[in-house]
Automatic annotation (TrEMBL):
The name this protein goes by in its record: 2-C-methyl-D-erythritol 4-phosphate cytidylyltransferase
The species this protein was found in: Halomonas cerina
UniProt function note: Catalyzes the formation of 4-diphosphocytidyl-2-C-methyl-D-erythritol from CTP and 2-C-methyl-D-erythritol 4-phosphate (MEP).
Record-marked site positions (Positions MEP for the nucleophilic attack): 156, 212
GO function terms (MF aspect): 2-C-methyl-D-erythritol 4-phosphate cytidylyltransferase activity
InterPro entries with a match to the protein in the record: IspD, IspD/TarI, IspD/TarI_cytidylyltransf_bact, ISPD_synthase_CS, Nucleotide-diphossugar_trans
HAMAP family reported for this sequence: IspD (MF_00108)
Catalytic activity, EC: 2.7.7.60
Domain of life: Bacteria
Marked site (Transition state stabilizer) residue numbers: 17, 24
NCBIfam families to which the protein is assigned, alphabetical: ispD (TIGR00453)
Key words, A-Z: Isoprene biosynthesis, Nucleotidyltransferase, Transferase
């Protein structure tokens, strides 16, 4: 690869919807913290990449021994996900070139496969805008009336669920994240920031089992996904790895 690859992993969320005692990235999934699964998969796909891990400045659950990358740095997270990602881009400003590729992946998506990661990379490395993993919406969409009843059935034609990673050139993404707040748009992913510049990110069909652990039920679902991926040969057991000891918060 001619340009460098940076991985940004926003992991500064509090997991409010999960409602657990620990932020969800530290909850155990097949005997390992969620964060270790996510980093292991990114490392298996991109062992030479440089990693920026966005963590809450007061995070005392994190253990640096969990990071498999040789070139990595800890960056303070911000108030929102987009602020955490912007902080990471600011932190590497002196090292990154505008043309370098940046892949942003939620720590809360530990089931992403190496195959999807490699496919997304191959597409966005050649794309003038960049893009994201996404899945076509499969269900009928209802809009509620605010009182628990259906106000309308919305067309799902052309609708996709945004997943991560989302990948763009460093210069473009930094500019987009800096400009987006002024556009009055809710920026919940990198693509929506790039869209505010009038650009159309590429949709790259990804696996539906790349779920985001958000609610309590999702943890058990993710365990089943990991087991199914191993059973089907999609993910070698070595990537799942053995259980790890967690000393800092026990
Ligand atoms: N200020 C924030 C908020 C979120 N994230 C990260 O962004 C990803 C997606 O966010 P989400 O699923 O909403 O995670 P939480 O913010 O932890 O969850 P909740 O909204 O339920 O509190 C997660 O990897 C989360 O750690 C972050 O780095 N910085
Ligand atoms: C970026 C994202 O994973 C795309 O689906 C998602 O938007 C992040 O989660 P949030 O709940 O919107 O913060």
């Amino acid at each position: 690869m001619s340009e460098r690859l940076w991985l940004v992993v926003p992991a500064a969320g509090r997991g409010r919807r999960m409602g657990a005692a620990l932020p969800k990235q530290y909850l155990m999934l097949t005997g390992r913290p969620v964060l270790t699964h996510t980093l292991a998969r990114l490392h298996a796909a991109f062992p030479e990449a440089r990693l920026c891990l966005c963590l809450d400045p007061d995070d005392h659950h994190f253990d640096p021994a969990w990071v498999p990358f040789t070139d990595w740095r800890r960056v303070n997270g911000g108030a929102e996900r987009a602020d955490s990602v912007a902080n990471a881009l600011d932190a590497i400003a002196l090292e990154a070139d505008a043309k370098d590729l940046v892949l942003v992946h939620d720590v809360a998506r530990p089931c992403v496969t190496v195959e999807d990661l490699a496919r997304l990379y191959a597409v966005i490395a050649e794309d003038p805008v960049g893009g994201l993993l996404a899945a076509p919406v499969a269900d009928t969409m209802k809009r509620d009336d605010g009182a628990g009843r259906v106000a309308a059935t919305e067309s799902r034609e052309g609708l996709w669920q945004a997943l991560t990673p989302q990948g763009f050139r460093y210069g473009l993404l930094r500019r987009a994240l800096a400009m987006a707040p002024g556009c009055g748009v809710l920026v919940t992913d990198e693509a929506s920031a790039v869209e505010t510049l009038g650009m159309a990110p590429r949709l790259v069909a990804g696996r539906r089992d790349n779920l985001k652990i958000t609610h309590p039920d999702d943890l058990a679902l993710a365990e089943r996904v990991l087991a199914a991926q191993v059973a089907s040969g999609t993910t070698p057991p070595a990537i799942i790895g053995p259980p790890v000891e967690r000393e800092r918060d026990t």
